[in-house]
């Protein structure tokens, strides 16, 4: 596609044609989509079982949420586009080589990364089969299907070493986020970069029931982060941080 534009300004315009992609994928009309986007957060919350155990989390995102997670993420990216845009600017500053978008959701960062001249290839990983199918369709419609590989888990691409890891709004959904940091460490190249954020908080009134907030888990996470990674300064006033591995 000769006139393809996956720049930050293009994202701010329409989320990389997000609504049209959703209409095509879900086979609904614009009014139906707007209604679902309006109720996206409530519809997803209604599916929550009330409390997660460590063994429940993966099954919930892979088997139970269906396309509700897709809608919730789309609503958030459209309504919080200025914040998302800054994370894209951060990615633009650091991402290069082989890029892993871990828990990539609706594919915003994977699509944008594929457009960066320093990026060779993007691996998109997400447990949710609806998310994976949607991102595959988006990449195909945008004419960049050869630049993005879509996978369920890291085990299926165990031989790939990444120069950049993008993991945004994912770690708080994992029962053992410190273990994930260790896995990223093994998968990063010696001069690799990891862009990470987290929010280990359920909210004053359980607004975020999907998040893990165990104090011991959080302490272990920060211990691992501080002893295995070094933070790299960036000028953006956002929660996402940039890290390089210390072990390499």
UniProtKB/TrEMBL annotation:
One BP term from GO: methylation
One Pfam family it belongs to: Methyltransf_23
A GO molecular-function annotation: methyltransferase activity
Keyword presence, Transferase: yes
UniProt keyword annotations, A-Z: Methyltransferase, Transferase
Keyword Membrane: no
Record-linked InterPro entries: SAM-dependent_MTases_sf
Coiled coil location: none
UniProt protein name: SAM-dependent methyltransferase
Native organism: Prochlorococcus marinus XMU1408
